[in-house]
Amino acid sequence: MICRVCDSTNLELAIDLGEQPWGNDFLTKEQVGKEPFYPLRVVFCHECKTVQLDHTVKKEIMFGDHTYLSGTTRTLDEHFRRVAHEVDSRFFPGKKKKAAFDIGSNDGTQLKHYKSLGYDILGVESSVRTAKLANERGFPTLNEFFNLQAAKRIKRKFEVINASGIFFHLEELHSVTDGIKELLADDGVFVVQFIYMKTAMDNIAFDQIYHEHLLYYTLETIEKLLARHGLSMFDAYEAPIHGGSIMGFVTHKGKAEKSKRLLSMLEAERDARTNEFKSYLDFAKKVEGLKERETEYINRAKTAGKTIYGLGAPVKGNTLLNYFKIGPDKFEYLIERNPLRKGLYSPGMHIPIQLESEMEKQPDIYYVLAWNFKNEILERNKGLIESGIEFHFPINPKG
Ligand SMILES: [Zn+2]
Asked: What is the pTM for the complete model shown?
């Protein structure tokens, strides 16, 4: 294997989460037990320091028909609204003709907010159903995989290019980054959101590791990728979205100085030795410790005769369930709000999904898999908490 970013062959295994199914592959009753498993291993590149998966599940398998809808959570919608307003007022105030392009635009939730600010909008989304939904809602969306060839067909420039998460899912990393360079206006800003590996390590949030996430960036390592394609990050901050993400602002190389806050975050990475191999080995040990503690907690609750439901059925929840080996003997249901997941089973561990709106009784414990929405969940369930139902968070985001 060669490094996905710098082509080096000097890679070493850091974290092994075993054989796992593709985490977004929620199963119908007939599919249960027939799903394929793939290695879920994180390797460290000693050359450019980027951590990455060594096994690629083909993008056509993972993104052709996914059922994730970004509009379904209020937190995410609000985050997208804030980003659009921030970008517009910081970089393009008063500009009359402006355009925004969103890669992995999902149901158009991000584009909606740029549209309301007067931007000409275009999205690209690989999921057939989701792209159709976005077009029906009035957000023009191409249904294809984005890469340099797709960019050349689009033949326009955009003041804003947005990529939330999905940019780093893509196996055609270099072609995608070239495509961004191609479409970015001279004064344009590429707004990129990605899970921040430094925070994931601080939080022991190992469930951020799944097959869709081929790469796990820090501020130091993403710059190496961008530099290779004539781009450079000039500002960044951390947002609580997805349990700790970087909001990065990127432009053509040489166009802007790095901000003070970006420089100090880079320094914090050096102080914490974030980009060193040993830190990843330490992380792997903490993950094992977490598994022991959580297994004990669940076993104790079961011995006491308590019922446990998983709360949420996010992709990352499946990393946790499969690595902790939690099946329907432990959790009777995973409770979901996304209607597309009605009647399905979780891949690997085969826990049935029940829609929140169709629940007949409450469990003793909610084991919160969607822990990144902690505040929203605690707020929404005040009544249940007061009635004595426990909400257990296996991962507690700091701050
Ligand atoms: Zn490398």
From this structure: 0.90
